[in-house]
Write a structure and sequence with these properties.
- The protein is mainly alpha-helical.
- It is 86% helix and 0% strand.
- The chain has a single domain (5-85), classed as Methane Monooxygenase Hydroxylase, Chain G, domain 1 (Up-down Bundle).
- The chain has helices at residues 5-41, 44-63, 69-85.
Length: 86
């Protein structure tokens, strides 16, 4: 339990940041799923549209330190190659 005023404040900030970061990670995962579902349905145009939005969200998550840059690059590369294969 936080005892000093500064440690209580840091605990509040950590909870707030954790909630915000969780929301961003959830949005990224949602758009990855949207691209995957569009690929499974064979809808190349929808997959491409969702992919461009997903790229932006992944890059933002990388800049905020939520996702490692290599993980984001790997996801983008694999999904893009699947879109091209359609």
């Amino acid at each position: 339990m936080a005892n000093s005023a500064s440690s209580r404040k840091r605990a509040r900030q950590a909870v707030k940041r954790n909630k915000h970061n969780s929301q961003i990670r959830a949005k990224v995962r949602t758009f990855i799923k949207k691209v995957t579902y569009a690929l499974e349905a064979g809808n190349k145009e929808q997959a491409q549209n969702c992919f461009t939005i997903m790229q932006k969200m992944l890059d933002q998550a990388v800049n905020k330190g939520l996702i490692h840059k290599n993980q984001a690059a790997r996801k983008k590369s694999r999904l893009n190659s699947q879109i091209k294969a359609l």
